[in-house]
Amino acid sequence: MSQEIRNLEPKELWNKFADLNAVPRPSKKEERVIAFMMNFGQALGLETLKDEVGNVIIKKAATPGMENRKTIVLQSHLDMVHQKNNDTVFDFDNQGIEMYVDQDWVRAKGTTLGADNGIGVATIMAILESKTIEHPAIEALFTIDEETGMTGALGLKGGLLEGQILLNLDTEEDDEIDIGCAGGVDVTATAEYDEEDAPAHAIGYQITVKGLHGGHSGMDIHKGLGNANKIMNRLLFDAFDDFGLQIAQIKGGSLRNAIPRESVAQVIIAEMYDEVFEFEMLQIVNEIKAEFASTEPNLEVVFERLEQAPKKVMPSMAQYFFVRSMYTAHNGVYRMSADFDGLVETSNNIAKVTLGEGKLVVQCLTRSSVETSKFDCANSLRAAFELMGCEVEFSGSYPGWTPNPNSEILEIVKSIYEKQNGSQADVVACHAGLECGILGTNYPEMDMISFGPTIRGAHSPQERCSISSVNKFWKQVIEILKNIPVKA
Questions:
Q1: How many CB atoms lie within 10 A of CB 401?
Q2: Which of 101, 102, 144, 385 has the most other CB atoms within 10 Å of its CB?
Q3: Alpha-carbon distance 361 to 353, whole Å?
């Protein structure tokens, strides 16, 4: 770990971030980071407990003179999204994140950084460890599995927390205060088909779509970024119609909450089309590149002739319905909010496509701040895939967070932001899946807001965190703790 990270200000926060990032912490494999956090709390002599699903709660008494203030819950999630560039050799299960400083940014070497939500976790750790920061009684809540199902928040039972105010430290624009977010549901389409033998003398190709930005499937869904699965399907659709191309396998995307950056397909074409196939396909590729010239300048599509053509392929009729269903399935913004200017209400990310050996799986994440609209979009996907004979399952549904513009803590944080920065913060609802809506189901009286430092490229290897923004954020948190209202 580079010492330059530990020398950044505020040192107490960045040192905790460096400690945390040395611990592998993929979603659904949080055993090591749970143990790390339990050891951290116990070493400080603080009441530390783990609930039945793996969330960690650390409680710290109020500093002298602050005992009459409302108890506050500081909340962040322990897990991080694991994404890396294809040419990066890295073992997320066993290696700590390799970080470096690039002007005002902290980045990782070819992988996600884990600032989402590691900066929030590190902030809370620094506060728990401090002997000088003034604060009311604190309940630090570290949830698990936020990135792949929010099962930590969903599993947190009522009665474990006494706090009246919750600060969620998990948003990515330092001039915003979030008071609402989208809910989500996983939509998974599966099908089986009988593979057939590839024709004799067929020519095999590997098609690779790469170089896309990727990004957060909620916060970045409105930016017009390329989806590798949709681009790949466009190529397969045209090549099937023009050249009778048949698919042997597809591997596209990786995580449901990350816009897919890469897709690889192995296909065959008839020998008679060998001379014109690449030429004609490159014409289509150039058209796609022109469409995405502004948003995806590094888009690449590579055609590589295989030494041996695949021996088994998807039957033509099954493929006919597959590529058409994929074309029909909605990706991107489904509906904009009628109540908040510029806010995406409902969207879908076609996150992962795997096809081969007689099996097809398409995984999507549908998000919305309106529950009925969420399922309207999900049902449109269901209809598209059922028409090709897929079984479609809805799973992992979680609610959105309804904004409360009359929040007491909101007014306090707005006032502090204006005093510290000389400008007003934007009060917004976001299209990401924050845990506040879920936590509010068992703690409906808890007053909640969410805020954080500036993070760019979350859920992708381009993830980076602004150093100056973290310093700004830290000062804001410290001042908020001093100004928590007294108990009723």
A1: 25
A2: 144
A3: 6
User: Is the pLDDT score of 178 beyond 60?
Assistant: yes
Whether 320 and 388 have beta carbons less than 8 Å apart is answered as no
Show the 3-state SS of 259-291. Answer: CCCCEEEEEEECHHHHHHHHHHHHHHHHHHHHH
Can you give the pLDDT at residue 86?
80
**Measured distance CA(53)–CA(114) in Å, rounded:** 22
Q: Is the pLDDT score of 255 beyond 90?
A: no
398-430: pLDDT as tens digits: 999 988 888 999 999 999 999 999 999 999 999
Indicate the pLDDT class of residue 149, thresholds 50, 70 and 90: confident
pLDDT at 132 over 80: yes
Q: How far is CA 253 from CA 86, 226, 281, in A?
A: 12, 12, 22
Supply the Cα-derived Rg of the chain in whole angstroms.
24
Residues in the chain: 488
pLDDT tier at 455, thresholds 50, 70, 90: very high
Strands 312-313 and 138-143: unpaired
Q: How far is CA 273 from the centre of its chain?
A: 41
pLDDT at 488: 83
CB atoms under 10 Å from CB of 157, counted, come to 11
- CA separation, residue 124 to residues 10, 13, 168, 199, 439 (Å): 13, 9, 10, 62, 18
Residue reference for tokens 């090549």: 239
Confidence of residue 2 (pLDDT cuts 50, 70, 90): low
* Distance from C-alpha of 301 to C-alpha of 323, rounded to nearest angstrom: 18
Cα gap 369→351, rounded to integer Å: 20
116, 219, 431, 456, 470 from 172: Cα distances, Å:
8, 9, 12, 7, 11
The terminus-to-terminus CA distance of the chain in angstroms comes to 47
Are 289 and 233 in contact, with CB atoms under 8 Å apart? no
Residues recognised as catalytic: 79, 146
Phi-psi region of 192 (alpha: psi -120 to 50; beta: other; left: phi over 0): beta
For 293, residues 6+ apart whose C-beta sits below 8 A from its C-beta are none
The packing angle between helices 11-21 and 467-482, to 10°, is 110
Query: Comparing 146-150, 261-265, 419-423, which segment has the lowest mean pLDDT?
Result: 146-150
- SS3 (DSSP) at 44: coil
